[in-house]
């Protein structure tokens, strides 16, 4: 029997469509693999085994009855715990929501169910998506499948690790400052942050409303495109949702596989995202990728984005400000845990305070305090106001750059996966890890991370970030698919096929090493 | 509530100049809430009109109600405001259990409407123009019910229940500029201004405008400036004053309270105050300083509202006649003196009066019935006059009086029948057999009998003491069981008295 867990979603869809395999088989194979490896990886906070198998059986029955199903029908998917699901706990990685089951589904969850994908469970994340390592999850960290002593990135480390460890072919993530792209980079997977407004945020527990965007987490560019087509498009429940008619991202990805797809494509290398602080192996793989691109006919040039140096500072004012307000609703009155103060009267104010004290982790408290301060009378103009101005300047930098080039590239993260605990005591170092990914969120433009090799010094994955103008998500998929094909042809294999085996599976070569 | 020291009102005015400001919240009567699809309905079961958005559940997001924007623009235009080309929502952050998101979605520096004016007329005829600073949109909070304590107050309560049905209902908050020069009219200005707002929103149809249901709520700001000083005094903000009379009383009370306090060497605390309807006093709420920090910032979940100029002009064309102008026109048309007209206005009967008169009733007769018998019945039943009968029914009733079919007394019985649902006035007349007896035959017989049995009265009438006829008229009406027109009876009594036989006098030949 075909190994069902190392297939791409596109390949599984083909096998399901032609009846070679059933969704129940595919789903069970993934659930069994989760049972085998997740004790080590801890990508999942909740696994819905029975519901997944029941859903898969229903999809199989409908297919058997001759019903016409969508392209990804019967394919399993993991859901980041930031998304509301009416049949699974939704905690956003926080103690304060422990055991909470929402009375509704997020729009993207509704859409994957309507497209007959099979939800496997909910994936781990930094609490309220605040972090770059999942070390801030209230339920313990997720481990990088490449090296269990290292972080899988964050906040969406659970979704990235789930696909990288072959626990799911697809996952949903959310990206506020890099939470899809950076985990993709450090786990050797693919992640896309769509154009702001391209995918509905309804039912995504808000971190920073003006930056958050839901997107696909996968192992290939085509799979990401297929999933994007399912979840994207206008949603009247999200006022910031764009009303554009979007082209098929899957068709765009397939266009990238054609000969000459890279010929004449103008690629801009952002000078400010390729300098000091970048690991040597990351820089090396980036330079090699640029050389391959040039050889394939792309026109590579350097562009400058002078205001990017203020991006992290602006981001860490805007994000905490919005988060401090978004997280105010966690007060024990209507949902979530309730903690009474140890002594003194039980007023609503004191119960709220005791609950928030017990329910929020340190990083969440840190950012709420920062944001509350940044919005305070007398400081608003200096902090939040100035940060919004920087945001405008960064948008102008992008506009100017996209006047000259079609796409912008950089390493997705300055380093490969770091070890647990390495940056936990140094919030600034943790924050600076997102220097490459934050500008796209500030400008609302789409960004993708795809593997570009292993760093020679540590044998860990390095990601290439690609950014396109707002609404040009299709361009990302065409280019991404072309680069992926180019690199895999160069390596002679996929990057993830070099990942070490986990548990007792014998599917992959165990020797890592540079490629 | 301990009564504060109050200064005599006239004395207070001698020493101080009152400075006012009002914030009036108008609850819009849109079908759905401001930011979600839940029903905007008063009186549903607790927490039944709720969803993830208005419950502030994780992941909930707002969507703007177009009808609420339209109503807000029309209200802004009716207040003479400019309508912003682009206007934004902002979050007003504060923790309170009735506010599901723990922020109110309001407007801050970019309100939908600003720079308006409203001219009101006081009973003395004095006209006062109130400058409107802004009218902005926001969502209402839920409703807390405090259990186990005294009189539903939070102090001493064991626990509180919260109903989020009202949470997210659209509000427009109308904020005035500082009102100076009010002088002794200050309380009346407050009452008249709020009445004018209520009248406008009612005429626009954008709110149910029922103050008793909280559709229109007033916060009254009062400060006193010592005569001869140009420095403003510290203000207090009396919250949620929910009837016109209370606005007047609360303003007057605050003037007297603050004057007494200031004169005694005390200082006014900048604070919110609660109005107590039962005792007619205000009490301290929470301190409020200009530095109250709500950490406003633009609502990132909503895009700016940018009403096109064409739409604004389209909405301007739908504005009804301004209520003040309409009142002037109607009073002139109807020929009412001020007292008569005020009676109609104060009883909130303008619309039904207009419809009744349009249905053919004379203005005075319509006024007499609506402000008299119908108002009395409505008051006794604890309902509004217009809920009892329709203007068409009242007009038909009046027509039956005018044509002599009914006396006033019979008409009251017919009205009862109409209210009881027995049909139109004509149908009730027929079914209850209430028409005035118009054949003089039985009437004359009854009159002759009454005159014969009261010879002394007859003699008096003959002597020219016409008022003595009353006794006979009463007896006749009684004999006729009310089914006679009193005026006709009187006429006939006088006529018959002139020709009736008188016992003491020599008999005259019958004619």
UniProtKB/TrEMBL annotation, chain A:
UniProt keywords, alphabetically: ATP-binding, Ligase, Nucleotide-binding, Protein biosynthesis, Transferase
EC number(s) on file: 6.3.5.7
Signal peptide: none
Gene3D superfamilies per record: Amidase signature (AS) domain (3.90.1300.10)
InterPro entries named among the record's database cross-references: Amidase, Amidase_CS, Amidase_dom, AS_sf, GatA
Alphabetized GO MF terms: ATP binding; glutaminyl-tRNA synthase (glutamine-hydrolyzing) activity; transferase activity
GO biological process, one term: translation
Entry GO terms, CC: glutamyl-tRNA(Gln) amidotransferase complex
Pfam families with a match to the protein in the record: Amidase (PF01425)
Catalytic activity, reaction form: L-glutamyl-tRNA(Gln) + L-glutamine + ATP + H2O = L-glutaminyl-tRNA(Gln) + L-glutamate + ADP + phosphate + H(+)
Uppermost EC category: ligase
Residues covered by the Amidase domain: 25-476
Protein's job: Allows the formation of correctly charged Gln-tRNA(Gln) through the transamidation of misacylated Glu-tRNA(Gln) in organisms which lack glutaminyl-tRNA synthetase. The reaction takes place in the presence of glutamine and ATP through an activated gamma-phospho-Glu-tRNA(Gln).
Family statement drawn from the similarity comment of this UniProt entry: Belongs to the amidase family. GatA subfamily.
Name the record gives this protein: Glutamyl-tRNA(Gln) amidotransferase subunit A
Organism of origin: Cryobacterium lactosi
Lineage of origin: Bacteria, Bacillati, Actinomycetota, Actinomycetes, Micrococcales
TrEMBL record, chain B:
Single GO BP term: translation
The organism's place on the tree of life at top rank: Bacteria
UniProt GO molecular function: asparaginyl-tRNA synthase (glutamine-hydrolyzing) activity; ATP binding; glutaminyl-tRNA synthase (glutamine-hydrolyzing) activity; transferase activity
Domain Asn/Gln amidotransferase, residue spans: 351-497
EC number(s) on file: 6.3.5.-
Enzyme class: ligase
Presence of keyword Ribosomal protein: no
Keyword annotations of the record: ATP-binding, Ligase, Nucleotide-binding, Protein biosynthesis, Transferase
Reactions accelerated catalytically: L-aspartyl-tRNA(Asn) + L-glutamine + ATP + H2O = L-asparaginyl-tRNA(Asn) + L-glutamate + ADP + phosphate + 2 H(+); L-glutamyl-tRNA(Gln) + L-glutamine + ATP + H2O = L-glutaminyl-tRNA(Gln) + L-glutamate + ADP + phosphate + H(+)
Function: Allows the formation of correctly charged Asn-tRNA(Asn) or Gln-tRNA(Gln) through the transamidation of misacylated Asp-tRNA(Asn) or Glu-tRNA(Gln) in organisms which lack either or both of asparaginyl-tRNA or glutaminyl-tRNA synthetases. The reaction takes place in the presence of glutamine and ATP through an activated phospho-Asp-tRNA(Asn) or phospho-Glu-tRNA(Gln).
NCBIfam families, per the entry: gatB, PRK05477.1-2, PRK05477.1-3, PRK05477.1-4
Subunit record text: Heterotrimer of A, B and C subunits.
Similarity field: Belongs to the GatB/GatE family. GatB subfamily.
Name this polypeptide is given: Aspartyl/glutamyl-tRNA(Asn/Gln) amidotransferase subunit B
Source organism of the structure: Cryobacterium lactosi
């Amino acid at each position: 029997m075909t190994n069902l867990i190392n297939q791409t979603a596109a390949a599984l869809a083909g096998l399901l469509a032609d009846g070679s395999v059933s969704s129940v088989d595919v789903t069970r194979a993934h659930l069994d693999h989760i049972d085998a490896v997740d004790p080590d990886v801890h990508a999942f906070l909740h696994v819905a085994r029975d519901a997944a198998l029941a859903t898969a059986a229903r999809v199989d029955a409908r297919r058997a009855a001759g019903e016409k199903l969508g392209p990804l029908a019967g394919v399993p998917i993991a859901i980041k715990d930031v998304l509301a699901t009416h049949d699974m706990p939704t905690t956003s990685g926080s103690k304060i929501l422990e055991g909470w089951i929402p009375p509704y589904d997020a729009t993207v969850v509704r859409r994957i169910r309507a497209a007959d994908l099979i939800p496997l469970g909910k994936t781990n994340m930094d609490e309220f998506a605040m972090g770059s390592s999942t070390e801030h999850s209230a339920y313990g960290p997720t481990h990088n499948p490449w090296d269990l002593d290292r972080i899988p990135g964050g906040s969406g480390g659970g979704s990235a690790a789930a696909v990288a460890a072959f626990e799911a072919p697809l996952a949903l993530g959310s990206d506020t400052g890099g939470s899809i792209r950076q985990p993709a980079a450090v786990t050797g997977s693919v992640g896309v942050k769509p154009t702001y407004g391209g995918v509905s945020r309804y039912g995504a527990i808000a971190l920073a409303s003006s930056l958050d965007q839901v997107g696909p987490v996968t192992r290939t560019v085509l799979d990401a495109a297929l999933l994007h087509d399912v979840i994207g498009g206008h949603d009247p429940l999200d006022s910031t949702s764009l009303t554009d008619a979007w082209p098929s991202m899957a068709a765009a990805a397939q266009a990238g596989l054609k000969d000459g797809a890279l010929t004449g494509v103008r690629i801009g290398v952002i000078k400010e995202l390729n300098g000091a602080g970048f690991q040597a192996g990351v820089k090396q793989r980036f330079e090699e990728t640029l050389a391959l691109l040039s050889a394939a006919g792309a026109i590579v040039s350097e562009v400058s984005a002078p205001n990017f140096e203020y991006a992290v500072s602006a981001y860490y004012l805007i994000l905490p400000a919005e988060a401090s307000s978004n997280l105010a609703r966690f007060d024990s009155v209507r949902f979530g845990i309730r903690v009474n103060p140890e002594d003194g009267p039980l007023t609503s104010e004191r119960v709220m305070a005791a609950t928030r004290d017990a329910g929020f982790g340190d990083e969440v408290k840190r950012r709420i305090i920062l944001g509350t301060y940044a919005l305070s009378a007398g400081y608003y103009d200096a902090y939040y106001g100035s940060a919004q101005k920087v945001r405008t300047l960064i948008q102008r930098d992008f506009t100017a750059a996209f006047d000259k080039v079609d796409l912008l590239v950089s390493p997705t993260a300055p380093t490969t996966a770091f070890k647990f605990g390495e940056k936990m005591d140094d919030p600034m170092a943790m924050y600076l890890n997102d220097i490459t990914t934050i500008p796209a969120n500030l400008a609302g433009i789409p960004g993708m991370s795809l593997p570009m090799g292993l760093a020679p010094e540590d044998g860990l994955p390095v990601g290439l970030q690609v950014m396109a103008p707002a609404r040009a998500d299709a361009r990302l998929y065409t280019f991404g698919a072309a680069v992926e094909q180019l690199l895999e042809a160069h390596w002679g294999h996929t990057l993830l096929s070099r990942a070490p085996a986990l548990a007792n599976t014998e599917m992959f070569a165990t020797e890592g090493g540079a490629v | 509530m301990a009564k504060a020291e109050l200064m005599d009102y006239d004395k207070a005015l001698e020493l101080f100049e009152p400075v006012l400001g009002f914030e009036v919240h108008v609850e819009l009567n849109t079908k759905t809430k401001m930011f979600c699809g839940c029903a905007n309905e008063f009186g549903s079961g607790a927490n039944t009109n709720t969803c993830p958005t208005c419950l502030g559940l994780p992941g909930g997001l707002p969507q703007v109600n177009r009808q609420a924007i339209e109503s807000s623009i029309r209200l802004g235009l009716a207040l003479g405001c400019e309508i912003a080309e682009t206007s934004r929502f902002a979050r007003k952050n504060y923790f309170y259990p009735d506010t599901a998101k723990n922020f109110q979605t309001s407007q801050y520096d970019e309100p939908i409407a600003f720079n308006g004016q409203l001219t009101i007329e006081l009973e003395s005829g004095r006209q006062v123009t109130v400058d409107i600073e802004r009218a902005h949109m926001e969502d209402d909070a839920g409703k807390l019910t405090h259990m186990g304590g005294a009189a539903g107050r939070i102090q001493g309560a064991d626990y509180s229940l919260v109903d989020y049905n009202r949470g997210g209902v659209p509000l427009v908050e109308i904020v005035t500029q500082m009102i100076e020069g009010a002088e002794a009219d200050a309380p009346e200005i407050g009452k008249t201004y709020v009445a004018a707002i209520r009248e406008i929103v009612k005429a626009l149809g954008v709110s149910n405008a029922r103050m008793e249901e909280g559709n229109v709520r007033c916060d009254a700001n009062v400060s006193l400036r010592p005569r001869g000083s140009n420095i403003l005094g510290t203000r207090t903000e009396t919250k949620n004053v929910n009837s016109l009379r209370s606005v007047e009383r609360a303003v007057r009370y605050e003037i007297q309270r603050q004057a007494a306090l200031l004169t005694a060497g005390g200082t006014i605390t900048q604070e919110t105050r609660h109005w107590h309807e039962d005792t007619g006093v205000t009490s301290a709420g929470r301190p409020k300083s200009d530095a109250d920090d709500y950490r406003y910032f633009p609502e990132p979940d909503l895009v700016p509202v940018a009403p096109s100029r064409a739409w604004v002009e389209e909405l301007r064309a739908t504005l009804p006649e301004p209520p003040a102008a309409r009142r002037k026109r109607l009073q002139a048309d109807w020929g009412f003196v001020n007292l008569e007209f005020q009676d109609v206005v104060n009883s909130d009967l303008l619309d039904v009066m207009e419809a009744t008169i349009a249905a053919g009733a004379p203005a005075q007769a319509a006024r007499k019935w609506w402000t008299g018998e119908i108002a009395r019945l409505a008051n006794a039943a604890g309902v509004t006059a217009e809920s009892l009968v329709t203007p068409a029914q009242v007009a038909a009733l009046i027509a039956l009086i005018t044509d002599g079919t009914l006396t006033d007394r019979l008409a009251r019985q017919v009205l009862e029948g109409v209210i009881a649902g027995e049909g139109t006035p004509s149908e009730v007349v027929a079914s209850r057999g209430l028409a005035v007896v118009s054949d003089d035959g039985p009437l004359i017989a009854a009159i002759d009998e009454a005159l014969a049995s009261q010879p002394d009265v007859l003699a008096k009438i003959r002597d020219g003491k016409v008022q003595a006829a009353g006794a006979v008229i009463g007896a006749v009406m009684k004999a006729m069981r009310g089914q006679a027109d009193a005026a006709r009876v009187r006429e006939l009594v006088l006529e018959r008295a002139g020709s009736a036989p008188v016992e003491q006098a020599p008999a005259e030949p019958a004619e």
